[in-house]
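Feature request, filed as a ticket because there's no other form

It would be nice if the structure record came with a short human-readable summary line next to the tokens. Right now we just get the raw output. Example of a typical job, pasted below so the devs can see what we mean:
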Amino acid sequence: MSRVGVATDSCASIPEALISELDIEVVPYYIHRGRDTLRDLVDVKRKEFFEWLATAKELPKTANPSAGEFLEAYKRLAERVKEIVSIHMTSWGSGAYQAATVAKEMLAQSHPNVRVEVIDSRQTSLCYGWMAIEAARAALVGKTLDEIVRLVRDMIPITRMIQTADTLKYLYMGGRIGKAQHLVGSLLNIKPLIGMEDGVIVPLGHARRRLGAYRKIVEMMEKQVGHRGKVKVAFVHAAALGEAESLREMVEERLTCVEVLMAELSPALGVHTGPGTVGVCYFRVSDRS
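Raw output as currently delivered:
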């Protein structure tokens, strides 16, 4: 049994098999669709949601878990561990980090002997999902909380997201467009490429077709890690598995993928990207790994 518990939230989009295998505590986001309030990946699943989203006339609202919900998650972990690391989406795009920080303070009142470290990943999607995965693996081999926190903080500046979509309208409608706002009106028939820098969405370029966008993704990855550079990479998508597989083939031709995840975004995250989104969340692996 690990000495450190790992918590995150549903927008990390970690594959369910890994959540179970690594015993990660996942707290769901919320989707407000009309009069319905749905718990991400609990009351609503990916396939049905993305089919509906493609035809939606109005974008549903999303909300991060409350401090009380994070508190309950910490209490569940506190039944078996005395140390917890909680890893969340960039605080520029969500209130999850702030809610988790409040929950940490609340837990100290009832469980003063349990230590919690809450980390703002400055990232989104499987980028901070990777951090939770690596943290849980470290916990299982007996690493201390301080060692795990250092591991996660070391990952923050090297973990990258690059994604493309048929449109940026979902990011724009959801208010998550960041510094890429100027692309919305100009790229009617062009595939935009976006990433994240210091917690904010930024434009990385564009291509006229999906294949061209995928080539640019591979080129940017190779520029960062070198030809045949070693990476752990998650190919993420929203109702576009075939496209993600195509991107995977192109990446594996140029880079050394020491671990590959195929993951569909959670509905709460997919609200802001839209169906058809494809991308990578990856980090360079040292030669010693």
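Something like this underneath would help us a lot:
The radius of gyration is 18 Å.
Residues 159-284 form a domain with the Hypothetical Protein Tm841; Chain: A;domain 3 fold (CATH 3.30.1180.10).
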